[in-house]
Design brief:
Blueprint (H helix, E strand, L loop, with lengths): L2 H20 L2 H7 L6 H10 L2
Helix pairs in contact: 1-3
């Protein structure tokens, strides 16, 4: 994997974590997500790129 792709994945991971952490607990709960799920969800999202 090239450095560009690696950076894209890292950037997507960071953005997803930032956006999910910005949500309140009620909003996360409405989405069926707990705070403990955020990093896994971000990793899964970045891996799809």
């Amino acid at each position: 994997m090239g450095i560009r792709k690696t950076f894209q994945k890292w950037s997507a991971y960071q953005q997803t974590v930032r956006e999910l952490n910005a949500l309140g607990n009620r909003e996360l709960n409405d989405l069926g997500i707990t705070r403990g799920d955020i990093e896994r969800i971000a990793r899964d999202h970045a891996a799809q790129l």
